[in-house]
Amino acid sequence: MTRREFLLVAHPGRADLVDTSRRVAELLAAAGVGLRILYEDRRESDPPETAGTVVLGSVDGLEVSVTDAPTAAEGCELVLALGGDGTILRAAEYAREADVPVLGINLGRIGFLAETEVDDSLESALLRVLAGDYRIEDRMTVDISVRRGSTPIGTNWALNEASIENAARLGVLEIVLEVDDRPVSSFGGDGVLVATPTGSTAYAFSAGGPIMWPDLEALLVIPSNAHALFARALVTSPDARIAVETVADGHDAHVFCDGRRVIDVPPGSRIEIRRGARPVRWVRLDSAPFADRLVRKFELPVKGWRGRTP
Question: What is the pTM of this model?
Fold first, then answer.
C-alpha cells in the first residue's frame, strides 16, 4: 500500500511558522501521513546542481524536507499552503504541475484565497482532509503566449491574472485590444489586466473591476489607467480569444503572471490570452455562500439586513 504524503508550502517570513508547521507535522504523523515541507525558495547563491534535489535539514529542531523543483508535489495527495494569498498562489504552482488539489490555510492579513484560518480551525480542517471529508472545485486559469511576428517569445499561465504592464516608468504603453479576432479599442495607458473569477478579488478588484463569483466562468479585461474615453472593464465569455498588441515603435512591456512569473515583451509584440488548458484543483471545506466570504474578508457593513420573509 502506497504511503500517503502531503506537501506543505509555508511562508518563510512568519515568526510563528515553525510552531505551526510542527502542529501540522504531528497531526499528519499521528495519522501515518508523510510530510514534505517547502520552507523557502532556493537562493540564487545556491549551486546550480542543487536544483531539483531533496535536501534534508532542520528548522529549529523540526526535521524538514526541502524540495526546489516544479515537481515538488509529484506523488503527493494534497498541497497545504500556510500563509497569505501569495503563499497560496505559490503552492498552486506545485499543485497544478502534479494535478493534485491545494488547501490554503491563512496566516496573512486577508487571505481571500484561503479556505480556513490557522487560529480558528487548523486541527479540525486537517482532520477533515485526512478523513477525505472535503470536495474539490476546478478553478479556471488562463494560458498566456507572447510572440513577435512569427517568433515565439514565451508562454506561461495564471490562476488570478495576467497583468500586461509598461516596462518604462515614463510615457504610456500604446496598445490595441482585441477580442475574438476583432479590434475593440486602442489606447495608451499603464497596461491591461486579464483576470479569472478567482482573481477578480485581487489586483483586478484594486484596478476597479467587478467581483465575480468563483463558480462563474468568464474572463475579466480591465484597462489600467487608460488615456481613453472608453476604458471600462469587460466581462467576456470564458472561451473568448483575447489579444493585446503593442506598437512597434513603443515601449517594452512585461506580462506578470499572478505577480510571480514574468514574460518580457518587446515592442511590436502580440500577447494572446486564452482559457487555461489545465485548471487548479481547489479544496473546499466551507459550504457557506460566497457572499458570506465577501462580508467577512472585506468587513462589509450589513447592519439593518432583515433577510427574506417566509
Answer: 0.88
